[in-house]
Amino acid sequence: MFRLASRCRKQACISLIRLYSATNPQELAIKSTNGQRISSAEYLQKVKDQTEGAKGIPIEQFQPSRAAFDVLAAEYDALREECNELNDKYKRALAETENVRRRGQKQVEDAKVFAIQSFCKDLLEVADVLNLALDSVKKEDLEKDPQLKNLYDGIDMTSTVLQKTFARHGLKKVSPEGEKFDPNLHDAVFQVPKEASEHAPGHIAEVMKIGYYLHERPIRPAQVGVVKK
Hints:
This protein has 229 residues and is an alpha+beta fold. It has 6 helices and 6 strands; from the N terminus they run H-H-H-H-H-H-E-E-E-E-E-E.
C-alpha cells in the first residue's frame, strides 16, 4: 500500500513537472551566452533547473517538457543541415585537392620530360647543317675522290649517331610530304600550282625543312610548300 501511494505521488510529481515546465525558447536555448553549444547533460540540467517543482527529482528520473524536446528537435535539424553543408564542402575540397595534386604531378612529369626542349632545339641546327653538307655532295664526285668519300662517310655516320641520340631521348623528325596542311604543325613558306603537283589541293607538295617532335609535342614545325586550292 505504501509503495502504491509512493508511486502515485511520483507520477503526480512528474505530471506537475510536465505541466509547469518552462516554455520560453530563450530559457531553453541549447547555446550558451558566447554562442557555443552546451552538452546534452548540461542542457538537461538547465531544463531541470528552470522547471518548477523539479529540484527534488533525481536527474535520472527527470523527464523534460515537450518544449525542451522541440528545442532539441530544431537543433537536430540545424545540425543535420550544417553537417550536410560541411560534408559537401569537404567533398568539394577533397576533389579540388586531388585535382591540384594531379596537375602538380603532371607538371612535374612534363618538366622532367621537356626539360631538354631548349637544348634539343639548339641541336636541331647541327642536324640541319649535317644534312645540308650531305645533300651538297654529288654521287659522281664521291666515286672520283676517295678523300671526299671518306669525309662524306664520316659526316653521314655523325648524322646517324645524332639521330639515334635524338630518338633515344624522344626526339624524332617528321617529313609530312603528301599530308594535309595543318597550320598548327606546319609552316607554309610557298605555294605550288595544282597542275604542278601530284598531291591534292591543300596538301603538302614539298618539304623544305623537316619538323621535329619531342614526345609527341611539336617543337619545330616543318617548312613546307602547299598545293594551291
